[in-house]
């Protein structure tokens, strides 16, 4: 078999409806601390944690679902994926003075390098990719 392989590390956690966005952030922060670039790219870590808050909150509030949170680091990008049981795909709406909420995916869009949502047989998967600054990557590869 030809081709190259990618070294990756990952973590997964189920977050029932009774869990909070803070629990998701605390869990993710503990795992992100094991990556070499967290001390060198604190702004990226903050962006990841805020996006996780938004994605988990969307699963709980809008999908009325538990959330499955998966973090995967492939030495170039931290992939954040949240699965919930709703088949309704999120959209990034600009802020509005007419509604109180609805800014979650707009925030994720602003923070992540890329994001996408895909339907699944049992709901949807929303994924965001975060790339730390090049100087943080060069020292941790």
Summary, kept brief:
Helix content is 34%, strand content 26%.
Cα-to-Cα separation, first versus last residue: 25 Å
Secondary structure class reads alpha+beta
Order of helices and strands: EHHEEHEEH
Please give the share of residues in helix: 25-40%
How many helical stretches?
Answer: 4
Mean pLDDT: 88
Task: Give the neighbour order of strands across the main sheet.
Answer: 1-2-3-5-4
Secondary structure: number of strands: 5
Uncertain stretches of 5 or more adjacent residues: none
- Silhouette: globular
How much of the sequence is in beta strands?
25-35%
Largest sheet: 5 strands, antiparallel
Rg result = 15 Å
Q: How would you explain this protein's 3D organization?
A:
- This protein is an alpha+beta fold and 141 residues long.
- It is 34% helix and 26% strand.
- Strands 1-2-3-5-4 form a 5-stranded antiparallel beta sheet, with helices on one face.
- The longest helix has 21 residues, at 42-62.
Index terms:
single chain, 141 residues, alpha+beta, 4 helices, 26% strand, globular
């Amino acid at each position: 078999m030809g081709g190259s392989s990618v070294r990756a590390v990952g973590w997964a956690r189920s977050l029932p409806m009774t869990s909070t966005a803070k629990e998701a952030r605390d869990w993710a922060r503990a795992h992100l601390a094991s990556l070499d670039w967290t001390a060198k790219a604190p702004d990226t870590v903050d962006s990841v944690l805020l996006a996780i808050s938004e994605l988990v909150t969307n699963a709980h509030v809008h999908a009325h679902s538990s959330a499955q949170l998966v973090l995967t680091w492939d030495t170039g990008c931290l992939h954040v994926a949240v699965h919930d049981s709703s088949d309704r795909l999120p959209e990034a709406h600009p802020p509005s003075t007419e509604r109180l909420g609805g800014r979650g995916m707009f925030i994720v869009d602003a923070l992540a390098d890329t994001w996408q949502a895909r339907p699944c047989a049992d709901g949807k998967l929303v994924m965001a990719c975060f790339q730390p600054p090049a100087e943080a990557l060069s020292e941790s590869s």
